Amino acid sequence: MFNAQKPSLDELPSSAQLIRSTIIAGVSAVAILVTVVLPAEYGIDPTRIGGVLGLTEMGELKTQLAEEAEADRQMDQAAGEQSSLLNDVFGLFVGAAHAQDAETWRDETTFTLEPGDTAEWKLVMEEGQTAQYRMLVDGGRVNFDLHGHGGGESVTYEKGRGSAGDEGEIVAEFDGEHGWFWRNRDDAASTVTIQVRGEYAEFKDAS
Description:
By secondary structure, the chain is α+β, with helices and mostly antiparallel strands. It contains 3 helices and 9 strands. The strands form 2 sheets. The protein has a 5-stranded antiparallel sheet, with no helix packed on it. This is Transmembrane anchor protein. It comes from Tranquillimonas rosea.
């Protein structure tokens, strides 16, 4: 190994030289920050040198992209919150509608008629009482006879041929049973749903 020769005191930089070098380094760092870093990263160009070098445009583009990304994030967050709120509100409306529909119809029955099958359901009513109904037919069409009888009297309110559904009301002309007789004249099975509400004592299967 070789012994390195130690520098003499005259060869070492003086305190003034060290301070000057430190100041120069600091000024250079500030100059680079102002002329290069700020324009290139943030679009801030106080000296206009960044614009000449094309750095300001780069910084403005980066800033714009960052702002757009933040705006998109906020929009996505707001859209998610709005969607969640709308789903909650929609769920409340649907639930309320189902609850209201369940409360609206006092009684309901569903049955399936094969080709040639018949069924009969009646409301037990007093003279002058009124009942509303809705008939839904799924899978085909049926014939029906809406009539009433009791105390030796009978009446026909309505007849339907090839019906896919019906709704209306019954006003009892006398005390007795008032309702429907169905027959499936189609070649396929039909499912009938009848919903009723109003003034009556009983809704019963009279088949």
